[in-house]
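[job 4471] stage=fold_predict status=RUNNING
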Amino acid sequence: MSGGPDEHDTSVERLTPVVRRLILLRHGQTEFNADSRMQGQLDTELSPVGEDQARRAAAALAVRTPRAIWSSDLQRARLTAEELSSATGVPLTIDDRLRETYLGEWQGKTHVDVDAALPGARRTWRDDATWAPPGGESRVNVATRATPVVADLLAVLPDWGSGDSPEAPVVLVAHGGVIAAMTASLLGLPQANWSVFGGLANTGWVQLSGHSFDGEPPVWRLDVWNATAEGV
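[job 4471] inference complete, writing C-alpha cells
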C-alpha cells in the first residue's frame, strides 16, 4: 500500500537536492608568469596583460551574480578579485588560506633554473601530490589548509544554492596550484590521481557543483575546468 501525502512529499523532497555552485578563479598574468618564473607565495603584481584579463573575467562572471567573493591575500589574486567585486557590488573577503603553494627554495627561480639544479624534480612534483619542493609545501599540504574555506562558506551562507537565486555561485579567487589541490580534495580523488588536471590559464576558472540532500554535506562534481572569458 502506498504511503500518505506526507510520506510522498518527503520522498519528493529527498529526490530534489540543493545544488551549490562554486567557481575557483585563477588570477591574471604577472611578469613572473610571462617569464616562466616560479612565484609561490612571492607577492607579485599583475602585468598590464593581467589587468586586462582580470577586467574581462570580471565582466564574464558578473552576469552570474555571485553570492560571495573570497580571495587570497596575495595581490595578484586580490586585484583580480577586486575587479569582480567592483563589477558586481559584492563585498570582497580576504582569506590567506587561499594563498598559492609555498615553493621554498624554488620561489623566484625559472623553470630552467630548477631543472638545471634538480633534473626531474618538477616532474616528480607534478606527478606526486605528497612530494614538496625543498623547504616548501606539497599539494596535499595545500589542500589541508585551503579546503576548509569551503566548509566555512557553507556555515556562513546557509541559503547558498536556495532562495531567490539558487544558481548564484560563490567565487574564490586564488592560484593555479591551490585551485588544483582544492578541486582534487573536494572531489575525493585518490592522491595518486591528483595529477590528472592540466594547468589553468591566467583568469581560467573551474566550476564545481555540490549536491546535498536534507542538510547533508555536499558531494562535489566537476562541471568545468579551465573556462576563460572570450578574448582572454
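[job 4471] summary: The domain at 18-227 is CATH 3.40.50.1240 (Rossmann fold).
[job 4471] exit 0
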